């Protein structure tokens, strides 16, 4: 992609973002195609992270910071704090725990002592189909609460997401995971949820949180807390399973 080629040719301190009005060649996790019709906020952002920094030592955390930044881009606007936008581990944006309306994809390349990170994020701002969009949630909230919150634009939310993300990265670099986790847990869908490990007959475990590297922690009875990695596991919220892929 153009941004993938450009990112090594720009000065280190210069940020780079590509915003797609619509996209047909997008790539998702596990070889999935990522389509972006008009009405979606979709962009790719390049950032550099020093290897010997808090985040450089915990690169998997970036996808969580981006998911949190997307949710915050809406919920940090005065009046919009209670719009039910949430994060789902490892890389989805959800309406409550009911429906996906966005996602995050991160690719990182280590060159000498710097990670060059390409962050793709997309979320549905204005399309009622095929799922639900942020402006539907705002309209629903207005109807239920008698408020008059205005619909939001994709451009505004992309800009806000990038601004919030920069701030989250700063906090993480300064304070490590504990600087951002309280906020992340405030918005995630998994608190106290029960899951089964491996298959539907598998042992029952409770979701505890995420560890210092961004992996999910589960507590299996009599076993203590263990971490589950996203690469080898697909996390199926609907069936509440953590299964090896």
TrEMBL record:
Pfam families attached to this UniProt entry: BPL_C, BPL_LplA_LipB
Entry-linked Gene3D superfamilies: Bira Bifunctional Protein, Domain 2 (3.30.930.10)
GO CC aspect terms: cytoplasm
Domain BPL/LPL catalytic per the UniProt entry, residue ranges: 1-173
This protein's record includes keyword Chaperone: no
Stored SUPFAM superfamilies: Class II aaRS and biotin synthetases
InterPro entries in the cross-refs: aa-tRNA-synth_II/BPL/LPL, Biotin_CoA_COase_ligase, BPL_C, BPL_LPL_catalytic
An MF annotation (GO) of this entry: biotin--[biotin carboxyl-carrier protein] ligase activity
Family according to the record: Belongs to the biotin--protein ligase family.
Listed name of the protein: BPL1 ligase
Organism per entry: Chaetops frenatus (Rufous rock-jumper)
Lineage per the UniProt record: Eukaryota, Metazoa, Chordata, Craniata, Vertebrata
